[in-house]
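Record type: monomer structure entry
Structure origin: computed from sequence
Chain ID: A
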Amino acid sequence: MRHSFLLCAVLVSSTACTTLRTTVRSYLTASNGLQIDDDRMRALLHRGMADSALRALSNRKSTLSPDDRLLRLLYQGSVARYAGRDRQAGALFDDAYAVSEDRFTKSASRMAASMFTNDMALPYTAGQNERLLLHYNALLSWSASGDVDAAAVEARRLVALLAQLGEPVDDERAMRALMHAIASAAFEQAGDWNDADVARRNAVRLGAPLDTMWTAPADSIGDVVVVIERGDVAHKVAVGLTVPIFSSDNVDRRTGSFAAERLLGDLGALRNGGIWWDDSPSWRFTDTRYGPWRGARASYLLDMSWPVLRRDAADLRGSVHVVVGAARTESMISASVSDALAADYRRDRGAIMTRTVARAMTKYAAARAMEAAVQSAASKDDDGGGKKKKKKNKNDDAARAAGLVARLLTNAASTALERADTRAWTLLPGSVSVVRMRIPAGTHELLVDAAGTRQLSLPSVVVKAGRTIVVSARLWHESGQGIRSVMERTAIHEASPQR
């Protein structure tokens, strides 16, 4: 037993510092439940300060820079793209792709650490739709830089992953169709007409209202495909469950097996909880016989915490139009990124809840083992006669008290460390729309009209005769200021918050 705990201690120590720092920061949240550093990063982008955000992410001492390498690369790639540093963004997404593919090999030491701390000890892994969005972002970055061949490479990676993932569920079908449609436009842009036709047909198969009889534009006109991102993606917030274990429960079962039975009896609360924040209370006691104020009487509080999704308050939806001169075209396809990521979470939820329950029992077993070890060390066996009986009783009382203190301290530490893993790629948009227009060759100003927002100008879009061009813009919602595009940037310099 002692050797097992020593081995676990060695394994945990390799990631303990990073996990502890991340856990402490996770308790600092904004009013919407978003982790405070992610909320600040979003605020910088909303104010058009993408350059300041990128500097903060490049500073490892900044609290805005995620500890996890994959998450940091995804953040840096997104912010570089919104700062107009398109080639840098493409290179960062290439690095993120390499790390993401490598993450399928799990680390045994980190898995062991997560059993004594929380899931933030595990490397961040992108879900199916986040992996698609990685290639989508890289594709748009390379398109904006003018490297249409690199954009086509990302389009091939995108359609290959789409084929590998198989048939989508309902929540992600629209986004998968949109990914095929954007890949088709990237192939057209590079002159790969056959690949463009295959991707277009796959988009139609998934419900996209595209023209399968599409033909290349004539010599005097060209196609422009406008990808419009709006709002912020749903983010993760922590909810939890407390199972109080009372001394009377364990009178005849000192092994702690009753705790497992109690926990399994309360799993209905876990099964019935939804994946959206509106469906779940933030924290609750499961035993209706005892209110939270009676928790002080419990011999152990078995805490569990897991993430649920919460939509952004400004969940921008509805139609999008692009105006060029007298021509006005409505978006042909739109998709909710939040709904697609919810499908990812549903796939992962079983593993998350399994780890949550296993971790709760591991911590309970550790607390009982700590209590027994301290009690054994504090007691002094004495085989003497009656004269030493009183001394022996005092020693036993002291040993029990020491064991109780050790259990309480272990319980307090495990409770503080029990925190849901709310890490996510929070810089993604809430929804994406695509508008396709066929207009005369030349330089044009595109005016974007999104439902309920002011008009946005995309100036100097060059349309080439007989070709397709892919352009994109991110629309930020700001209270009192409507929509701001990444085109409107400010050169405001500010100090990065330090760890």
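Annotation 1: The longest strand covers residues 235-245.
Annotation 2: The chain has 14 helices and twelve strands.
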